[in-house]
Amino acid sequence: MPISPAVRDLAVHPFRELPVPPDVEVVELDGATVGFNKWPTAQLVRVDGTGPTDVAAAVEASRAAGRERGKTVLAWWVPVESDHLVPALEACGLVNEDTPGFEAVENAMALVEPPSGLATDAVEVRMTETWDDFYGASEVVCRAFGMPESTEAELRERFEEYRRPENPGRGFVAVVDGRVVGTSYAAFGTAGVNLFGGAVAEEARGRGVYRSLVRARWDYAVGRGTPALTVQAGRMSRPICERLGFRFVEAVRVYVDKVD
């Protein structure tokens, strides 16, 4: 089955195509948009249209916005169509490298047919609805991606925001022997469901946890009438996604800006 233009756009431009979550503050710049969230990860800068007319000015404006909010790392999302901006971004000191929350290269991929393989009975997957599941998922993500830990108060505030009805997505957790060992997020778009933040505890890898999480979100996408999954896969998850049937769409580079 071919990948439709709408699904392709969701894979390459998830931050443009998806609804804005209630916990994200959007700041419009000339030719770019910054989304600020409360997580201790790089804050995403999205290129709009052909991009800024003055890249250096846009970079400085994004830095100023980050400083105002106490954010120290920005990540510019640069798809192939925006490659013409790279020399100017590099002249401003931005570097194509990994940073918490993003890898230097994010592979846009799409799945438009049922994933290969079956979920394993040893892994229970459920939508994240309780505080315990939310907390367990946060621990898995912090360990998997090397992110700084948040206080319980911060996490409880994010849990309340997560539960808001207008939140355009939901998390899923994988549970083995009563313990959360995997987590992932599904953001609901008009063309399909985009997958974010898939993580599996190191001791639970190789047991079908990731596959079970993908199957659960595929089933959810089918149930809502949008049978397509998109993902921006890193170096470790791309081969796993390919085995599940995801097809490569485009490589997107992430340029990291460390705010002074």
Q: Considering the protein shown, what is the CATH homologous superfamily of the largest domain?
A: Gcn5-related N-acetyltransferase (GNAT)
Spans of at least 5 consecutive residues with low confidence:
none
The appropriate CATH architecture of the largest domain is 3-Layer(aba) Sandwich
So how many helices? 8
> What's the shape?
globular
Report the strand count: 12
Structural class: alpha+beta
Provide the β-strand percentage band: 25-35%
What's the CATH class of the largest domain, please?
A: Alpha Beta
Helix percent band: 25-40%
**What is the total number of structural domains?**
2
Biggest beta sheet attributes: 12 strands, mixed
Averaged pLDDT = 93
Q: What's the end-to-end separation, in Å?
A: 48 Å
Order of helices and strands: HHEEEHEHEEEHHEEEHEHE
Radius of gyration: 18 Å
Task: Please name the CATH topology of the largest domain.
Answer: Aminopeptidase
Notes on the protein architecture:
There is one protein chain. The chain has eight helices and twelve strands. The relative contact order is 0.22. It has two domains: 5-107 and 254-258, no CATH class; 124-250, Aminopeptidase (3-Layer(aba) Sandwich), CATH 3.40.630. Strands 1, 2, 3, 4, 5, 6, 7, 8, 9, 10, 11 and 12 form a twelve-stranded mixed beta sheet that branches. By secondary structure, the chain is α+β, with helices and mostly antiparallel strands.
